[in-house]
Specification:
Length: about 400
């Protein structure tokens, strides 16, 4: 017993040497690439509406682990998890833990907004010689489709999986009846969310109508690239590809002017911290309590064009936005006031998020100089916006 024990002890150094040599040999080889899971989509029940209709939550995950969750109520994006520069995943959009939160008075967290995104003055417009009156829900004005816009209806959701091409997605469909919220025409709408392995979320819109109608669709997600529970976004850095913006009156309706951004707090053409000029003594900032304005994008042709880039120095997350739309509403969460408790019990305060709503201009049905938003029978409404996510290794300072 003793001799055996001694022999075993004498074997230990040799064994350690062999392990050490083997370890050194292995360390000379490049590390194996991480094994990626295939892109996938799944769905689960997500509660019910007061009508008793069931709500479904869809989860899209790409091979890099980016995860998008969206439900068929309002087409709402409830969660979007992306990595920071160290690979740590975090949810970067505001919202609620259950469908019940979205049934309360809520500031359009993550929703598809329409039939007309943004505002129409006094809820009125004239089309082909006929006057129409809309549901008014924002002071004297109609906002984001009215009292029961597209954010408050149950869409039909159909998932799809194109794993061979590295894409997963869901198609939301809805038919808006003639006269709904005061708008003319039966409108068939389709909105598709696609997540690919290039870490891009594409939002595509398609619609047809049987009567002429104003149409302006957008996606109203509230982003905080540091994470939805991380407080103010004032240190995050933005650039917007726009030489002009549309100033507004006291009710946030465009005056009709296309004002140059040069020399103003609205000059965001070069990267600048969101909070750098948000409290400047500027009449337009005073009206909105910060940024809540449509920027006239610098466009060439009808395809995708650069709209904006936002970067968070703390986490390294970067988001770039490209769109086929002529405008971009930049909103800095000015009306969040601490009365909303969101996911994980987080209280959402003023400027805890920003929105980048690709769109046609507000109040276009009443502004003949703005690009038309009228969809007519026989024509097809199409629009596309791409949100691309990446990380930056080191902190990049703002230009100003």
């Amino acid at each position: 017993m003793v001799r055996l024990a001694v022999r075993s002890i004498h074997l230990v150094p040799a064994l350690l040497l062999l392990v050490s040599q083997t370890s050194c040999m292995k360390s000379d080889k490049p590390p194996a690439a991480p094994v990626k899971s295939p892109a996938r989509i799944s769905s689960v029940p997500f509660g019910t509406l007061p009508s008793g209709e069931p709500v479904t939550l869809f989860t899209l995950t790409n091979t890099n682990g980016i995860e998008l969750r969206a439900m068929n109520y309002g087409g709402i994006i409830t969660s979007l998890r992306t990595p920071d520069r160290l690979g740590v995943m975090n949810d970067i959009v505001l919202g609620y833990d259950s469908v019940a939160g979205y049934l309360k008075t809520t500031p359009y967290f993550g929703a598809i907004v329409g039939r007309y995104a943004n505002r129409i003055a006094k809820g009125r417009f004239t089309l082909d010689g006929k006057s129409y009156t809309l549901a008014v829900n924002n002071g004297k004005n109609a906002l984001h489709g009215g009292l029961a816009g597209f954010d408050k209806v149950l869409w039909t959701g159909m998932p799809f999986d194109s794993a061979a091409s590295g894409k997963v997605g869901v198609v939301f469909s809805y038919t808006s009846k003639d006269g709904e919220e005061g708008y003319p025409g039966a409108l068939s709408v389709r909105v598709t969310y696609t997540l690919n392995d290039s870490d891009e979320l594409t939002v595509e819109y398609h619609a047809t109508t049987d009567k002429a109608t104003p149409l302006n669709l957008s996606q109203h997600t509230y982003f905080n690239l540091a994470g939805q529970a991380s407080g103010a976004v004032l240190g995050q850095v933005i650039s917007i590809n726009a030489d002009r913006f549309t100033p507004v009156d006291s009710t946030l309706i465009p005056t009709g002017e296309l004002r140059p951004v040069d020399g103003t707090a609205f000059d965001l053409r070069q990267p600048v911290a969101i909070g750098a000029h948000i409290n400047d003594a500027d009449a337009q900032l005073g009206i909105a309590g910060g940024y809540d304005h449509n920027f006239v994008l610098n466009r060439q042709g009808d395809g995708l064009g650069s709209a904006a880039t936002v970067y968070d120095p703390a986490s390294g997350r970067r988001m770039t936005v490209s769109t086929t739309e002529p405008g971009l509403q930049f909103y800095t969460g000015n009306f969040l006031d601490g009365t909303i408790t969101g996911k994980g019990g987080r209280v959402y305060e003023k400027r805890n998020a920003f929105c980048l709503e690709t769109q046609h201009f507000p109040d276009s049905p009443n502004q003949s100089s703005f690009p038309s938003t009228i969809l007519r029978p026989g024509a097809v409404y199409t629009s596309r916006t791409v949100f691309a996510f990446s990380t930056v290794a080191d902190s990049v300072p703002a230009a100003r």
